[in-house]
């Protein structure tokens, strides 16, 4: 069972700040995705390629926007390239080149976010500022013509100290401020999305507080 009350209250809350919700459905059964879809949700996020492809195949009659939010290996891009709506977790130029190649094969432009490393407390994936600059420079030179870079994504440290989490969010906000062309700042999960929004997020990725605990 999904938590319908939480979901509807959350949508109401997000509407006030024009924040987009991505319902992170990784490790959740297809029935729960359908239930949320029936309540009007269209944006779903997944972390694992095989699981995403199975779900997409099963739900291909529905107009779901599938977001990829997990660590993506270059050799798996080809499986999601035909249908993916937004790849939020681009963490290397090598990966972006592969996405561009597969996008071209599928005659598509694929929307991407660049994942920036902001957590100081943990080892997470993501680009540092130099790598980010390198990618944007490469794109500016006319490469990656089948990629649309829509903005940035970040994951804060998974800790109770909200002061540190806030610093991490503000750091990412300060980076995106340098790029007025970027529309999307994806930061915030079940435990920290309100803080993320107060720091400038306009897309939150929320799983457990809608779907319940994962398997
Ligand atoms: C799992 C996951 C989420 C959702 O986490 P919850 O704590 O369940 O809301 C958000 N973003 C990413 C990248 C994730 O892997």
Coarse shape: globular
Task: Give the beta-strand count.
Answer: 8
User: Strands across the major sheet, in which order?
Assistant: 7-6-5-4-3-2-1-8
> What gyration radius follows from the Cα positions, in whole Å?
17 Å
Share of β-strand residues: 15-25%
Helix and strand succession?
A: HEHEHEHEHEHEHEHEH
Cofactors, ions and other ligands in the entry:
pyridoxal-5'-phosphate
Mean pLDDT: 96
- Contiguous runs where pLDDT drops below 50 for at least 5 residues: none
How would you sum up the major sheet? 8 strands, parallel
Q: Which structural class best describes the helix and strand composition?
A: alpha/beta
- Helix fraction bin: 40-55%
- Report how far the terminal alpha carbons are from each other: 13 Å
Tally of separate helices = 9
Features:
19% strand, 40% helix, 9 helices, single chain, globular, eight-stranded parallel β-sheet, 215 residues, alpha/beta, 8 strands, binds pyridoxal-5'-phosphate
Give your account of this protein's structure.
With 215 residues, the chain is of the alpha/beta class. The protein has nine helices and eight strands. It has helices spanning 4-16, 30-38, 49-58, 77-80, 93-105, 129-140, 162-176, 193-198, 208-211; strands spanning 20-24, 43-46, 65-68, 86-90, 110-116, 147-154, 184-186, 203-206. Strands 7-6-5-4-3-2-1-8 form an eight-stranded parallel β-sheet. It is globular, with a radius of gyration of 17 Å. It starts with a helix and ends with a helix. Bound molecules: pyridoxal-5'-phosphate. Pyridoxal-5'-phosphate binds at residues 24, 26, 47, 69-70, 155, 189-191, 205-208.
């Amino acid at each position: 069972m999904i938590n319908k009350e939480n979901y509807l209250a959350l949508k109401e809350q997000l509407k006030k700040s024009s924040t987009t919700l991505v319902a992170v459905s990784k490790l959740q059964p297809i029935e729960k995705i359908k239930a949320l879809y029936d309540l009007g949700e269209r944006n779903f996020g997944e972390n694992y390629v095989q699981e995403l492809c199975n779900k997409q195949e099963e739900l291909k009659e529905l107009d779901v926007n599938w977001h990829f939010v997990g660590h993506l290996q270059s050799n798996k891009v080809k499986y999601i390239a035909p249908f993916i709506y937004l790849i939020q977790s681009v963490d290397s130029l090598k990966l972006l080149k592969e996405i561009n190649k597969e996008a071209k094969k599928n005659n598509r432009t694929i929307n991407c976010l660049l994942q920036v490393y902001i957590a100081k407390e943990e080892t997470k994936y993501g680009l540092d500022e130099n790598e980010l600059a390198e990618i944007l420079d490469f794109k500016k030179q006319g490469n990656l013509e089948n990629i649309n870079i829509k903005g940035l994504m970040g994951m804060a440290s998974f800790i109770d100290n909200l002061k540190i989490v806030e610093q991490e969010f503000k750091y990412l906000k300060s980076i995106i401020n340098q790029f007025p062309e970027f529309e999307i700042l994806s930061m915030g999960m079940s435990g920290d999305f309100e803080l993320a929004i107060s720091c400038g997020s306009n897309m939150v990725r929320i799983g457990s507080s809608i779907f319940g605990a994962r398997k």
